[in-house]
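User: Quick sanity check before I run a bigger batch. Here is a single chain. Can you write out its predicted 3D structure?
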Amino acid sequence: MPKLSLVVPVYKVQGYLPECLDSILGQDCTDFEIIAVDDCSPDGSGAILDEYAKRDDRIHVIHLTENVGLGRARNAGLEKATGDYVLFLDSDDTLSDGALSAIRDRIEATGDPEILIFDYARTYWDGRVRPNLRAELLKEKGPDTFSLADRPELLDLLQIVWNKAYRRDFVARTGLTFPPGYYEDAPWTFCSLISTERIAVLDRVCVHYRQRREGGNILKTVSRKHFDVFDQYQRVFDYLDAHEELAEWRGPLFRKMVDHYLTILERPGRLPQDARAEFFHRASADYRARMPKGFTRPGGGRGHKYGMLERDAYTTMVSALAAVKFRQRVKTRTRTALNRSKRGAMGAFYQSQLRLPLDDNLVLFSAYWSRSVSCNPAAIDAELARLAPHMRRVWAVRADNADRVPKGVKVVRVGSREYWAALARAKYLVNNVNFADSVVKREGQIHVQTHHGTPLKTMGLDQQKYPASTDMDFEKLLERCDRWDYSISANQFSTVVWERVYPCSYTTLETGYPRNDVLVNAGSEDVRAARAALGLADGTKAFLYMPTHREYQPGFTPPLDLGRFARELGPDVTLLVRGHYFYGNSSHVNELRRTGRVVDVSGHARVEELYLAADALITDYSSAMFDYAVLDRPIISYVPDWDVYSAVRGTYFDLLQEPPGAVATTQTELLRLLSSGAYDSPETTGRRDTFRRRFCEFDDGHAAERVVRRVFLGEESLPPVVPFDERHHAPTPAQALELVERA
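Assistant: Done. Predicted structure follows.
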C-alpha cells in the first residue's frame, strides 16, 4: 500500500490537467497513488488521464458514466484509495516542489496524526502569487499534535479539503463522505475537524491554488445552486445532533454558518437578483432556529448584519447594500467616462458607425495583421461563398499590400473610412491573429479566431516564463482575446494549449484547420499546376525550406549555406526557400536566385500551393511541419540551434525526441540525409505516422465546411471527422505525374 493516495476529480480542465498531473508525478516522494476521477467530462480530459495512466502505473483512472459533481466524484475516488493517508487535489491546481516529501515527513515526525493541515498560496494568470492571509494559524508551535479545542482558531481557515491529509482509517471510522451540490467542502471540513483528537500542522505551501481568469469557479457563477449552502449546513448541524459529545462546537459553527450566508448575500455575481429576498429569508430562518442559548453577536458592522438576519430585516439589508452599490456605480461611471475618452481617439466616424445596426450578412476577414488574403480565413471565405452566397465578404488589407490581393476579392484598406465602417457593422469578424486594441467588440458581433498554426513554441501566457522572447503586455493580450467567440483548433493538443494560454470565455471548435482542406482534397492536376507555376520540371526533386522566426535574430539569414546545398545535391534538385513572413523579401536569398537552383518563394501568396508542389519539407520550429504532415510526405527537421531556441522561446515538446521524420543538427548531416535518401526511410515514415495521428487529428478535408455550418449557418450537427485510417490526401508529385501519364 502507498503512503499517500491523491484523489483528483476531473471535469472540463483539459487546459490545466497536464500541469496538475506533472506536478504530482514530478515529486521527489514516490510513495503515492493517484485516483483520477473523470466526472464524465465533455472535453478531452478523460483521454489525457488515460494517456498519463499508460505511462505511469501509479495513476488509476475512473471514468464515470454520468456527471455527478465534485463531491460525489471525490467519493468515487475515495472508495478506491488504498493509501494510509488521503489527499484531495483539484485538477486545475498544482503541488509545489517537494510538497509530498514535506507532508510525509511531517506525518512521520508527528506520530501519524488523523489530520495534517498544510498551507497553500493563490496563483494568478499574470504570475502573481498571493499567500494565504491566515498562514500564521499554521505556525508549528506547542505540541506536535493537538485537538481543535486546543487551537479553535483553525476553524477560521478557508473551509477547503485540499489543504489537508486525512488518515484513511479515521475517514472510515467517522463515515465521512462528500454531499452533492455547491459548498460540499463545508460539511466534510467542519465535521472532520471537530471529530478528530489528533491534528498536526505543516507551515509550508504545498498547494498552488489557481485563480482562473475565466470559468472553473462556482463562486463566480450566478445561479440558484448557491441555495445548496442551506443543505450543507443542515448536514453539519445534523451531525452535531447525532454527536452530543460535540455540543461545544454549536456556537463556533453557528458563527461560521452566518458568516457564510452573509458572504453569499454580499458578494456580487452569485445569487440571481430575483432570488436574493428568498435566500435572505431562508438564512434568517436558519439563524433563529440554530442560534445557541446565550449567543453574543460580534461587534461593529458585522454584528449589525447579524442583527438584520435575526430580525429578518431584508429591507434594511437591501438599503445597506444599495449604499455600497452606489459607491461602486460612481467608480464605474468614472471608468466608463475614461474608456469613452479613449475610444474618442478612434475618430468620430467610427463612433457614429458603432451606433448603427449590425449588418447580419457582412463578414470582415483579416489575416497576418492584414498583410494578405490567406490562411484559415481565406479557406473559410471560399467555403462561405459556396454554402452561403448571400453573405457579403470583405477583406481588411494594408495599403502597402493591396497589390497582392487576388482578383475578385473586395478589399477595405486598413485605416480608411470603409475599414472602420466594416469593423463597426459586420456581424462576423474572422482573423488568424487579433484585431487592434482600438477595435470595439459590439454586442451581437461574432469573432472567429482561427489561429495560424499548431504551437511547438510557447504561446500566450506561457511566454511569461520566457521574458527574453517577448515584451508583450499580457493584460492587453487577454483583453483582445476576450473578444473571441470561437477558437478554431486543428487537434486536441492545440485545444489544450489555447484554452490554458488564452483563458477567456470562447467556444472551442475542433474542426481541423480550414487552410489544410486543400491538402486533402487536391488532385493530380492541382499538384502539377502548383509545380508548373514555380517552373519545376517533371522529374525535378523539390525541397521546400521554411525556417521560422527567431526573436533573438534581427533579420532572415538562413542557417543553411544555400550555395553549397545547390552544388552538392546536383542539377535535379531545386530548393524552394520561404522566409518567415516577419522578414519579407531577403537580399541574401535574392543573390542566390540567379543560380536557378534556389527559388525564393517568400512572396508566394498561398503556402498551400508550395506544399502541394514540394516533394519534401525542410523546416525547424515552424508550424509548417504540422500542416505539411497532412500530405504524408517526408519532413526533415534541421535544428542546428535547438538548445538556444528551446531555452529562449520554450517549446511544448522535445522536437529531437518526437520529430515528424528525419532530424539533422548540422548542415553536413542534413546534406548527407538528402543525398543518400535516408530522410525517407521506414524509420522516418513511422515517426511521421505517429506525428500525423497526434497533430493532424481533425484535418480530413471538411474543416472549412464545419466552421461555416456551425458559425454562419447555426447548425449544431456537423459533418463527423473521417476516421484517420480512412482518409486520403493529395497525390505526391511523382504520383500526379504517373496519373497523368496513365491518362
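The mean pLDDT is 91.

User: Great, the batch can go ahead then.
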